[in-house]
Amino acid sequence: MKYTRLTRQQLEELHQEFINFLATQSITGAEWETIKKEKPEVAEEEIDVFSDLIWEGVLSKVGYLENISAQQMHLFHLAEKEMKLISVKVMNPEIDLRTELGFGWFKKNYQSDFVEYLTASKAYTEDKNLDKFNLIKQGAVITKGELYKWFDDLMQ
Question: InterPro entries recorded for this chain (predicted)?
């Protein structure tokens, strides 16, 4: 398995897609029930293959990721040839960017000496989607990139 198995809830939400996936392999509903009972390891493998297919589809479309902790924001733009990073660090230990109050402080003080910025870019490895997935495993979440774009415009 290349990525992570989808959770039970995710599989339930993708029930119709999973049925279609089984149909592409000529597995009927009745056959699937038999496989689950008599060959659970084969059923697990099918779920793993389906999970990887779903992850591949999602990761190929991801354009932005954010990883926000108490004092840092790592904002990623996943461009065609490289990952671009805007990193924001707040030097005020009383501020937690994950709270409404902390982010409010940041919006008022983003140009102060208490805030540092860093930009970087990095080429993908041979497996662009795995690079994206690894960022998600480290805590990044998929976004529409509003924060990244705001900072990018600010820094221009």
Answer: DUF6495
Query: What is the H or E stretch that residue 23 is in?
Result: helix 15-24
- Cα 152–chain centre separation: 20
Structure confidence by residue, pLDDT tens digits, 52-75: 999 999 999 999 999 999 999 999
Which of 44, 61, 78 is a domain's end point?
Answer: 61
Q: Assess if residue 2 is contained within a domain.
A: no
Half-sphere exposure of 49 (CA within 13 A, CB side): 11
Whether residue 47 contacts residue 81, with contact meaning beta carbons closer than 8 Å, is answered with no
Q: What is the pLDDT of residue 46?
A: 94
Three-class SS state of 130: helix
Query: Going edge to edge, which strands form the sheet with 82-90?
Result: 115-123, 82-90, 72-78, 64-68, 141-143
Domain containing residue 146: 64-155
Helix ranges (DSSP H) in 62-125: 100-109
Which residue from 41, 129, 44, 118 is spatially nearest to 87, judged by alpha carbons? 118
Q: How many CB atoms lie within 10 A of CB 21?
A: 17
- Low-confidence stretches of the chain (pLDDT < 70) are none
The confidence score (pLDDT) of residue 122 equals 96
Q: Are 88 and 125 contained in the same domain?
A: yes
